[in-house]
Write a structure and sequence with these properties.
alpha/beta; Metallo-beta-lactamase, Chain A; 6-stranded mixed sheet; 6 helices; globular; binds zinc ion
Amino acid sequence: MQQKLQNSKFELIEMHPKNTQSVIVSVGMNCVVFDPWGHADDWIEKLDKRGLKLQAIYATHGHPDHIACAPKLAAHYGVPWFLHGGDFRLVGSGNGLLEYFNLPPINVNDIHPTLLKIKKTEILPNLLMDVIETPGHTPGGVAYNFPNEKLMIIGDTLFQDSIGRYDLPGGNEKMLMQSIKNLYNLNLSDDTEIVHGHGMATNIKYLKENNPYFHN
Ligand SMILES: [Zn+2]
């Protein structure tokens, strides 16, 4: 848990069963959730206990481990869950992964995603977020960058020392490499924190020094 600007708070959350890195971003009592993994009931308990009001859900991409709870939370709180249109067709596929973790499947009758707009948006009061397209791991992968808070949620495009898979349906090695190059060319400051879809968070300096794929 860390304090960025005084009004916004970013919390990295690893819900049971440990697998995916989710994030709660809050300003006051309003919050949004990124890549909600785990059991929807656990999320509802967590948010309600703290009196947090969920405003929206954002997914970095459409793989089941990044949208596991999105439809159920969207239905429960009556909020949209945003996904890039390129990944709409992934929704409801790959449920074997959820089964493996004893989580309920996502099915086509669940709440559908809302089309994510590729632009700068004020997602909570005074909290600006850039949506950056990063196809390659999936066709509709995105990174969410918070320029004022120096933090970027990057999904499965890039990990601490490696890159996301491009051999899954819709994956594309060339596009993934180009997306990583584009992220590098954003020239974010060394101390910009990077939240990966799996594993510990890093920062730009760490990636430059340790990730052989992170270069121009
Ligand atoms: Zn993925």
